[in-house]
Amino acid sequence: MSTKSFIALLAALCTALAPTGPVFAASASQSALDLNLPSLGTAAGAELSPADEYELGKQLMTQVRADPTYMSDPETSEYLNRLGYQLVSNAQTYTYGFFFFPIRDETLNAFALPGGFIAVHTGTIISAQNESELAGVMGHEIGHVTQRHIARMIEGQKSNLALTVGSILLAILAARAGGDSGGHAAAAIAMGSQAAMIQSQLNYSQDAEREADRVGLQTLYRAGFDPHGLEGFFARLQSSNRFYRSAAPAYLSTHPLTTERMADMENRTRQLPTRMHADSLDFSLIQQRVRVLQETTHDGYLKIRKNMERELRNASGTARCALEYGLSVASEKLNDNAAALEHAKKASSLCTGESAVLERNLLRARFRNAGTTAAKDAVLKDAKRAVERYPLSDMMSANYVDMLYELGRHEELIRFLRNGSSLSPDDPDYHALLARSYEKLGKKSLQYQHTGEMYALLGATEAAVYQYGMAQKAADGDFYTMSEIDARLRELRQQMIQEKKDRER
C-alpha cells in the first residue's frame, strides 16, 4: 500500500471514529496517542516523509476540531503556543511547524498527532504545580515529534493494518452500546488489539519513551525552565494513576517502565545545575480560566464561582489576582456582566506586569457593560489600540472582530479579517466570522462560500459541497469570486468521491 493510500485510509478511519464521542475521547486520544503505544515500528521508513506526516496531521485535526472535547479558546491556545514555541525554539532538531491546543479533559495527559499537532488536557494545565511542570509535559511530546516516533508508529501499523481496522470497528460497536461502560469497553478493546503487537516490539517503546524523556529534559533546560518539571509530572501521574485505571489494560498500571523512566529522569535531573524558574503571570491566569472553561453548564459555572470566592478569602499576591480574573470569566459565562467587570478591574489592579490576557478580559467586560453606542465605540477604539500593540495576538484580533460585529460594522470587519488580522484562514472560526458578516450584508455567494470552507476545515466534506453548491446557485458574486467557488466546488466533489472510495476499501 502506498503512503498516500495509507494516509487516506487512516484519515477515513478517524473520520468514521470521531462522531461516536466516547471512542474518540477514550480510545483515540488515550489509548493510541497518550500512551505512545509500544507496538509501532522499526526505524522510520523512507516512505513517510515529514510532509506526509503533516498532511496526515492536518486531516486528523479536522476530526479533532469537530469533537466536543476540542476547546476553541483563543486565550488558552495562544498561551500554549507561546509556551510551546519557547520550547521548540530550543529543541535540537526543529523541522516541523507546531500547533498546540487544549482538550477539555480532566485527566493528566497530553498527546501528539502526526505533523507537530500537540494536545494538552485541561486537567494537566489545572494540575500543574508550576509552569516548568507544564512545560515538561509539552517538551516530552515535542520530543516524540522531533524524533519521528509517530512516523515509526505509522510505518509499524502498515503491516498490522487488518488487526488495527478490526479493533477500531469493535471499538465503535462498543461505544455505541452507550454509557460510560461503553466508552471504557471501547478503550479496552482498542488497547487489547494493540497488545497482540506489543511483545515483538516492546524494546522499541522503551527506547522511544526514554528518548522523548531525554529530549524533553534537554529542551526544558535550554528554554530556561526548571528541569525538575518533567520529573514532577511523572511522579504525580504515577501516584494518582487515574488515567491508567480508567482506560487501559491492568498490566499498564504495574508495568515497570514508568518506574524505570522515573529513575532515569531523576538521575539525569540531578546532573544538571539547580535552576529556579519564576512562573509567568499568564500561567496563573490561564489555570484559573481553564478551571472555568472545563465546565459546560450553568450549574458548573455557579459551582466554580463559589469555589473561587471561597479560595479568594485566604489568597494573596498573584494567586489573588488570578482568582479575581477567574471570577470575571465565570461571571461572564453566567451573563453577570456587572460582576464580570468588577472582578476584571480588581484583577487588573492587583496583578503586576503586562498581560494581554488581562487586558482583553477588561476590554470585553467594559464593552458588555457599555450602555450606549458611544460608550461601545470608545471601548472599540481601545480594542483597536490593543491589536496594534499585540499585532500577532489572535485573541486580541478576535476581541476586536466580535466588537465590530456587534456594532454592525461588517465592511470594516471583513477588511480587518482579510488584511489586518492575525487570524488564520486555516481556522474554521475565521470563515465562520466572515460568513456571518457577509450574511448581514446580503452577499449570499460569499456567505455560503465561507460557510462551506468552515465545514471543509472541520472535515465535513459533504456539508461543504452543499454550501458551495448554494454559493454557486446564488451567483451574486463578481467574476473572480464565482470562479473561485466553481473551482473549489469541483475540488471538494472529487474529495468527497475519494473519501467514499477510501471508506469502502
From TrEMBL:
GO CC aspect terms: membrane
InterPro entries: Mito/Outer_Membr_Metalloprot, Peptidase_M48, TPR-like_helical_dom_sf
Cofactor(s) demanded: Zn(2+)
Signal peptide as annotated in the record: 1-25
UniProt keyword Glycoprotein, yes or no: no
Domain Peptidase M48: 76-268
Keyword terms: Hydrolase, Metal-binding, Metalloprotease, Protease, Signal, Zinc
GO terms, biological process: proteolysis involved in protein catabolic process
Protein name, UniProt field: Exported protein
Species of provenance: Sutterella megalosphaeroides
Species lineage: Bacteria, Pseudomonadati, Pseudomonadota, Betaproteobacteria, Burkholderiales
